[in-house]
Amino acid sequence: MQTTKTITLDTPIKRGDDTITAVEVRKPASGELRGCNLTDLLQMDVVALTKVLPRITLPGLTESEVSKMDPADMLQMGTEVSGFLLPSRMKPADFQPE
After folding, report:
1. Is the CB of residue 57 less than 8 Å from the CB of residue 45?
2. Which pairing describes strands 57-58 and 18-26: parallel, antiparallel, or unpaired?
3. Over the range 13-42, which residues count as b (16 or more CB within 10 Å of their CB) and which as e?
4. What is the value of pTM for the model shown?
5. Superkingdom of this entry's organism (predicted)?
6. Given a cut of 70, is residue 97 above it in pLDDT?
Protein backbone atom coordinates (compact mmCIF):
# COMPACT_ATOMS: atom_id res chain seq x y z
CA MET A 1 0.00 0.00 0.00
CA GLN A 2 1.35 3.40 -0.97
CA THR A 3 1.80 5.61 2.09
CA THR A 4 3.15 8.77 0.44
CA LYS A 5 2.24 10.79 -2.60
CA THR A 6 4.15 13.68 -4.16
CA ILE A 7 1.97 16.55 -5.32
CA THR A 8 3.36 18.95 -7.93
CA LEU A 9 1.85 22.32 -7.10
CA ASP A 10 0.04 24.32 -9.76
CA THR A 11 0.97 27.46 -7.84
CA PRO A 12 4.31 27.19 -6.02
CA ILE A 13 4.52 28.39 -2.41
CA LYS A 14 7.04 31.12 -1.65
CA ARG A 15 8.88 30.66 1.68
CA GLY A 16 11.51 33.31 2.25
CA ASP A 17 14.05 32.95 -0.55
CA ASP A 18 12.85 29.42 -1.36
CA THR A 19 10.05 28.28 -3.64
CA ILE A 20 8.19 25.05 -2.89
CA THR A 21 7.08 23.42 -6.15
CA ALA A 22 6.19 19.95 -4.84
CA VAL A 23 4.94 18.61 -1.53
CA GLU A 24 5.02 15.04 -0.27
CA VAL A 25 1.85 14.03 1.56
CA ARG A 26 2.02 10.92 3.72
CA LYS A 27 -0.65 8.72 5.23
CA PRO A 28 -1.50 10.13 8.66
CA ALA A 29 -1.25 8.11 11.84
CA SER A 30 -4.29 8.18 14.10
CA GLY A 31 -2.65 10.65 16.50
CA GLU A 32 -2.12 13.12 13.67
CA LEU A 33 -5.87 13.20 13.13
CA ARG A 34 -6.59 14.41 16.67
CA GLY A 35 -9.06 17.25 16.84
CA CYS A 36 -10.46 16.42 13.40
CA ASN A 37 -13.66 14.77 12.34
CA LEU A 38 -12.89 11.97 9.86
CA THR A 39 -16.06 12.78 7.93
CA ASP A 40 -14.79 16.34 7.45
CA LEU A 41 -11.50 15.01 6.06
CA LEU A 42 -13.29 12.59 3.73
CA GLN A 43 -15.37 15.52 2.46
CA MET A 44 -12.14 17.53 2.00
CA ASP A 45 -13.28 20.23 4.42
CA VAL A 46 -10.78 23.09 4.17
CA VAL A 47 -10.71 23.75 7.93
CA ALA A 48 -9.94 20.08 8.68
CA LEU A 49 -7.29 19.89 5.93
CA THR A 50 -5.69 23.10 7.20
CA LYS A 51 -5.30 21.42 10.59
CA VAL A 52 -3.98 18.06 9.30
CA LEU A 53 -1.77 18.96 6.31
CA PRO A 54 0.94 20.69 8.40
CA ARG A 55 1.29 17.42 10.33
CA ILE A 56 1.73 15.17 7.29
CA THR A 57 3.58 17.18 4.62
CA LEU A 58 7.24 17.38 3.64
CA PRO A 59 8.43 20.04 3.57
CA GLY A 60 6.19 20.75 6.53
CA LEU A 61 3.70 23.40 5.48
CA THR A 62 2.41 25.89 8.03
CA GLU A 63 -1.31 26.46 8.61
CA SER A 64 -0.82 29.91 7.07
CA GLU A 65 0.72 28.43 3.92
CA VAL A 66 -2.08 25.88 3.64
CA SER A 67 -4.75 28.56 4.07
CA LYS A 68 -3.21 30.63 1.25
CA MET A 69 -2.81 27.63 -1.06
CA ASP A 70 -4.26 27.58 -4.57
CA PRO A 71 -7.65 25.78 -4.44
CA ALA A 72 -6.49 23.36 -7.16
CA ASP A 73 -3.51 22.37 -5.00
CA MET A 74 -5.74 22.02 -1.92
CA LEU A 75 -8.02 19.73 -3.94
CA GLN A 76 -5.07 17.56 -5.00
CA MET A 77 -3.87 17.21 -1.41
CA GLY A 78 -7.37 16.67 -0.03
CA THR A 79 -7.96 13.91 -2.56
CA GLU A 80 -4.82 12.12 -1.37
CA VAL A 81 -5.67 12.56 2.32
CA SER A 82 -9.19 11.22 1.85
CA GLY A 83 -7.80 8.31 -0.19
CA PHE A 84 -5.39 7.42 2.63
CA LEU A 85 -8.33 7.17 5.06
CA LEU A 86 -10.36 4.67 3.06
CA PRO A 87 -9.98 0.95 3.75
CA SER A 88 -8.38 -0.88 0.80
CA ARG A 89 -11.58 -2.75 -0.05
CA MET A 90 -13.45 0.56 -0.45
CA LYS A 91 -10.94 2.23 -2.76
CA PRO A 92 -11.66 2.46 -6.48
CA ALA A 93 -9.27 0.54 -8.71
CA ASP A 94 -7.51 3.83 -9.56
CA PHE A 95 -6.30 4.11 -5.95
CA GLN A 96 -5.11 0.52 -5.59
CA PRO A 97 -1.34 -0.02 -5.65
CA GLU A 98 -0.02 -2.16 -8.48
Report:
1. no
2. antiparallel
3. beeeeeeeeebebbbbeeeebeebeeeebe
4. 0.87
5. Bacteria
6. no
